[in-house]
Amino acid sequence: MADQDDILQLIEDSEPGPEPSNAKRWKIAVIDDDPAVHEGTRFALSDYSLNGQTLEILSAYSGAEGRELMRANPDIAAVLLDVIMETDAAGLDLVEYIRNEIHNETVRIILRTGQPGQAPERRVIVDYDINDYKAKTELTADKLFTSLTAALRSYQQLERMVQTRRGLEIIIDAASTLYDFKSMQRLAEGVLTQIASLLNVDCAGILVLRDSGDDFSVLAGSGCYSRFIGVTGINPLDADLQSMVEEAFRRCKHEFADQRTVLYVRTGSGREVVVLLQAARELSDTDRSLVEIFGSRLSIAFDNVILYQQLHEANTQLEDRVAQRTRALTQANRRLSTQWMRLQRANAFKNEILGTVAHDLKNPLGVILGRTEMLTELISAASSKENVIAQVDHIREATRRLTSMVDHLISDAMADAFDISIRREAVDLAALVAEVAEANRPMAQNKQQMISVSIPAARITMCDSDRVREAIDNLVSNAIKYSPIGGRIALQVDGDDDNTIIRVTDEGAGLSPEDLSRLFGRFQRLSAKPTAGESSTGLGLSIVKKIIDMHGGLVSARSEGPGQGSTFIISLPATPAAS
Question: What residue stretches are annotated with the Histidine kinase domain (predicted)?
């Protein structure tokens, strides 16, 4: 144990001397139910000074008073706390209150106890967030000085860390705000606001931009500098302020004086900015470091605003060019539309001429065909005329092919004409299909083919009998044309109350996937070839589709592939759809 001369003596009749009211002092709380402890502590620390700051000692005499004191003074740096007061654990309960309820993590707590056994040192240090543990009997004046000095230095370091964290949070928050500004004026106002928030002071500020040369302009001002906002020219400021700004541009670096801060920023695009702040207090080292960090990021914000303005101008120019181009395209589209109408009229005229010419050609071709057949009969009696008969046969075959091609051309011209209409009437499609089958049997018999028909007794459908007959006839003649010698062709009619289904199935060359994709187009030549050298214009299936479409029906084809035959299916609505 220390000698008695070293033990802190509690003197009751001494008063601390007066201190200057405006000096910055460390706040210390003494919380103990023994008034003598308070007086002795004041006496022992009466001449205490650290970093030029003396002490301001606040007193509380119970745990309850200690709670009020700590809540009212969040800037207390250290607490000298007794364990046993109104209860055996009043001091420890106060520690819990300080740390967990008012969340004061920076204040340093020195626990003092006169009865160490009731608050074992190891358990208290482990279970409670205190910073030092002293028995009152061992707390001499020198040890009190040492413990308090260590506590205050620890508090000072924690405060700097808290200030740094707060400042960095402001910088991070300010970055997203500053970079969103779309004009130099708004950005300048935001800079002054964020710096004041960063330093947690009320200050007057001015932000000056120098774009090129020696001229500069005031972008923002606060406090006593507000009157300079928007001022430009050679000498826009008062003489003393003008001198400070010019000196900042000349030095090109930050300057920190007693109550004045000058921030110099140079952007990546070569522009220079000076921010001058007038604050009521001197900035700490932490404040200065944060200001320098903030300044280093400002150049990006200024360049961001400049780039935005340039982008806005470029976008405006682009919109003008797009508008001009749109007008030009609109005019060109009108010209194309006019030309398209002319082409449509020319195409209609072409179709009309084509139909007329094809019709006129068919009559003489019929005569030629008839005369060749008569000539064949006359010559057939003379066996020596075999060569003549062969030549006549060639004429007849060529004429038949030409007649077939003209028939297709006539149908195509009629399908494309604008004045074609469907004359709907009640038609027995079962009977119609039977008639088409009978009409095509001679052609099938020439190739030793068999046509089978599976139809109901009657199947009434509202349609144009001539057009539908033409469509079915095209499918049946195609089946004969592309089926092999001795092949079978099947016609089937069925359906339900809503639709009539007609199927034409052959045993021909079938359809490849490529054939199926372009089956109903005009002038499409498929991979399969007619099996007896018949001619094909590639128009028959396109005419079928046109006729069925005009009736509101559907036509499709199925095939297992080349060599597997094919099935064509026509679906016609039993009654016309309501218009």
Answer: 356-576
Tell me: do 194 and 305 sit in the same domain.
Answer: yes
Does a structural domain hold residue 392? Answer: no
State the alpha helices, DSSP H only, in 380-416.
Answer: 386-416
- In the sheet that holds 54-60, the strands lie side by side as 54-60, 25-31, 78-82, 108-113, 132-135
Would you call 140 helix, strand, or coil by DSSP? coil
- Angle, CA of 483, 526 and 568, to the nearest 5°: 55
Separation between Cα atoms, residue 281 and residue 199, nearest integer Å:
10
Reported as half-sphere exposure (CB side, CA atoms, 13 A), residue 410 has a value of 15
DSSP character at residue 228: G
> What DSSP element (H or E) covers 342?
helix 285-379
Tokens standing for residue 165: 């964290």
Q: What is the DSSP letter of 88?
A: T
Asked if 445 and 555 sit in the same domain, the reply is yes
Q: Give the CA dihedral 414, 415, 420, 425, nearest 10 degrees.
A: 110
Same domain, 118 and 200: no
pTM beyond 0.85: the answer is no
Of the CA atoms within 13 Å of residue 288, those in its CB half-sphere come to 14
Tokens of 15: 């008063």
140 and 228 inside one domain: no
* Alpha-carbon gap, residue 502 to 571, rounded angstroms: 7
- 369 inside domain: no
Do both 228 and 102 map to the same domain? Answer: no
Positive or negative torsion for Cα 298, 300, 302, 304: negative
Which domain does 433 fall in, by range? 425-573
* Whole-angstrom distance, CA of residue 112 vs CA of residue 135: 5
DSSP codes, 509-553: S---HHHHHTTTSTTPPPSS--TT-----S-HHHHHHHHHHHTT-
Q: Is residue 291 part of a domain?
A: yes
Q: What angle do CA 501, 504, 510 make, to 5 degrees?
A: 130
Bridge partner list, 31: 60, 81
Determine the distance from the C-alpha atom of residue 376 to the mean position of all C-alpha atoms in its chain, rounded to a whole number.
Answer: 81
Q: If the chain, 579 residues long, is cut into consecutive pieces of 10 residues, what is the mean pLDDT of each piece?
A: 39 44 78 90 89 90 93 92 88 90 89 71 78 78 87 83 64 56 62 68 69 69 72 67 80 77 76 76 73 72 74 85 89 89 78 62 63 68 61 70 67 53 87 90 86 89 89 88 89 90 89 78 61 60 85 90 87 74
- Say whether both 192 and 262 belong to one domain: yes
Taking each helix axis from N to C terminus, what angle separates 184-199 and 141-178, rounded to the nearest 10 degrees? 170
